[in-house]
Here is the input.
Amino acid sequence: MTPVGDGGPPPSCGQVRFYGRRHGRSLRPRRLAALSLDLDRLVLALPADAGVRLDPRLAFDPPRPRVWLELGFGTGEHLLGQAARDPEVALIGCEAFLNGVAALTVAVTDAGLAARVRIFADDARRLLPRLAPASVERVFILFPDPWPKRRHRSRRLLNDATIDELAEVLIDGGELRFASDHAEYALSTLARLTRHPALRWTATRAADWRQPPADWIPTRYERKARAAARPPLFFRFVRRIRAENCERV
Here is the structure.
C-alpha cells in the first residue's frame, strides 16, 4: 500500500504546512482493506524529479483529454457523482484526511470507475505547483475549512498564491467553482478572485451566486449547512484566454 501522504516529496521548512486532521475514528474493515488493496492503483504519482511538471491528462491509461480537479473532496460523494455523470471526464481528487480517502477508494472501486479517478492523498497545495500549465478543464473547491478565527485566516486554502496556481493550471475557458456557507470567507474569496486578471466571474444576477449550477451535486456538508440555516454561496469563474493564444481565436 502506498502510504497516505506519499503523493510527492515531503514539504521542507518554509513550504506547505498542513493544518487540520489527518485521521478520524477507526476505519471499518471494508475501508481499511480498500486502503491496502485498492488505493495503489488510484494514487496520482508525481514525477520523481521535482523540476518536472505532471500533465494530469497523461496520468490515466489511456490518457484522458478532459481532466477535472477537486481540492478537498471530503468523503468523495461529489467527485464520484461527477465521474458517474460524465464518462468523457477523468477526475483527480485531493484529500489529506485518511477517512475520506478510504471512503472514496471504496466507492470508486464499487462503482467501477477506477480507470477515470485518481487520488492525491495529501494537501492540494503540494500538488498544484507540480501540475503542467493549462492542463485542467475544471476545478472544484467546495466548502473548505473557513478557519473563522482571525488569527487562523492565513491557513485558508484560497489565498493569492493558490489562486495564481489555479489560474496557471486551468486551460483557456476552464472553470473554477467555489462554494461556502461561511459568509465572510465566501466574500473575501470573491474579492480575491475578482481582482485576479486571468479570471472572469460569470455571474450576471443574484441567483447566479445564490443557486448552484444546473449540474450541481450536493455534498453531505452542504446538506448540514442548509439544515443549520447557513445558505451557501456559489461562485463560478472562467479562465480568460492567454495572451499568446489570442491571435488563434
Remarks:
- DSSP finds nine helices and seven strands in the chain.
- Residues 1-14, 18-24 have pLDDT under 50 and may be disordered.
- Residues 134 and 171 are 4 Å apart (CA to CA).
- The longest strand covers residues 170-180.
